[in-house]
Amino acid sequence: MMEPAGGPRGSGSGPETSTAVTGGETPTATAVAGDGESASALLDRARRVAESVTDPELPAVTLAELGILRDVTVQDGHVHVTITPTYLGCPALREISGDLHRQLREAGFADVTVHVQLTPAWTSDAITAEGRRKLAVAGIAPPRPAARGPVPLGLPGRRDPVACPRCGSADTTVLAPFGATLCLALHRCRACGEPFEYVKDI
Amino acid sequence: MTDDAWMTDDAWATDGPASARWAYGTGFRDPFVDIDLSAAPATDPEQLAARCLMLGDDALVYSHRLQQWITRLPELEEEMAVANIALDLLGQARLLLTRAGHLLGTDEDRLAFFRSEHEFRNVRLVERADTDFAELVGRLLVFSTWRLELLRRLRNSSDPGLAAIAERGATELAYHREYAAGWVVRLGDGTDLSHQRMQAGLEAFWPYVDELFQPDPVLAELSPELADPAALRSDVDAVLDPVLATATLQRPSVAPAAGVGGRTGRDGIHTEDLGYILAEMQSVARAHPEGVW
């Protein structure tokens, strides 16, 4: 399920999107520890691999840039990766875990456990500056700062406009508040006429 | 079984291991690994489990009702919205049922698919089939406003599992509420016909609103902020009233739907609708209880 950056994203957000898992992959257990690699070097390498895994639904950014990679530790050669879901119902978690397992295995880590952490809850504010830049380059508008405190119920027109990631115009409108995945909305730029996706600020 | 805390490697195998039963197809196991649940809950475990079931069943049954709208909505954008909202609620339901499962020695699938009507603890509000889109958005506005206020108060719950779900769930609900409010205003303050149908939509489900604010001593124990249902209600009204006013709609003044001997959804007394929902939702799991795919 590793898609090239800019490739087609998962189009559905229903639970059925996670059924496209191909089976039969035999884990290749390559020896890692004990090759003279120090514990800290091993940890660095595991961390680099985990950090480089991209999100299946937003392949332009890595899990680390999206802010859902919480921790990587190595104990006796066993890698523990902790991630957090963007949304409680996020159907991509399985793909994410599968990608982590696969890429760490390819890097020689045979024993991998993926933990899911619920608190603190993910917020779109956790997306890094580099992640925001990459999203914009991929034509996806990065989120505005999420509203905090008591959530006021606003009626349309109360928020700053989202800038178009293609032409930069602030003259944009919401086409659909819920997009192709749980984390996206669909907007359109009135200046250049292009529709674009927006990472929901939450 | 591997020691993976959430996904099993087995889920990627082709020979259908026990851990890849169809209902476990998403590889979901237990997301509470990083939350210390070992301390004996201050609340009686059976009572705590019952509250997790109540909140989980609300989300599960309502999610199912919303899913039934898919392919029947007026616009593609609304299809995406309602599907996304249903998926969010399903995510909340799964975690709440999982937490209840911890306490009862069972799991989310057994709770979702092998309980009978009288064992479900959802409020009756979520059972009704909407007659039209106006009723859908009206009920979604009330449900998400109420549930948001409820979960917001549970974020500091004495049960860390419940608190974690409430924390994340609240932000999702705020987004649902925003969506529903936008449509209620658009339809209420639209044409004569849309106004009339929006008002009729509110009237249709309003008898079940009262039930949302029944006092519950165990919830009060879990969060002191829930000790006073009148305060919860006034916070919900503080959101609903301006939306209804902007939409030029009247708050319905209808008598609450009667229970049976004072018992309602939370006691396992439901409307006729729930049986049909469960028949559809549970039929595959019950026909193939150990089915693998």
Explain what this protein looks like in three dimensions.
The complex is a heterodimer of chains A (202) and B (293). With 202 residues, chain A is of the alpha/beta class. Among the domains of chain A are: 37-116, GMP Synthetase, Chain A, domain 3 (2-Layer Sandwich); 140-146 and 161-199, no CATH class. Chain A has four helices and seven strands, in the order H-H-E-E-H-E-H-E-E-E-E. Chain A has helices spanning 39-52, 63-66, 93-106, 129-137, and strands at 69-75, 78-83, 112-116, 140-141, 172-176, 184-189, 195-199. In chain A, the strands form two sheets. In chain A, strands 4-7-6-5 form a four-stranded mixed β-sheet. In chain A, strands 1-2-3 form a three-stranded mixed β-sheet. The longest helix of chain A has 14 residues, at 39-52. The radius of gyration of chain A is 19 Å and the shape is elongated. The model of chain A is unreliable at 1-33 (pLDDT under 50). Chain B has one domain (43-287): Ferritin, core subunit, four-helix bundle (Ferritin, Up-down Bundle). Helices cover 55% and strands 0% of the residues of chain B. Chain B is built from nine helices and no strands. Chain B has helices at 45-67, 76-104, 108-113, 133-154, 160-188, 192-205, 217-222, 229-246, 273-287. In chain B, helix 4 (133-154) packs antiparallel against helix 8 (229-246). The longest helix of chain B has 29 residues, at 76-104. Chain B is globular, with a radius of gyration of 19 Å. At the A-B interface, helix 3 and strand 3 of A face helix 2, helix 5 and helix 8 of B.
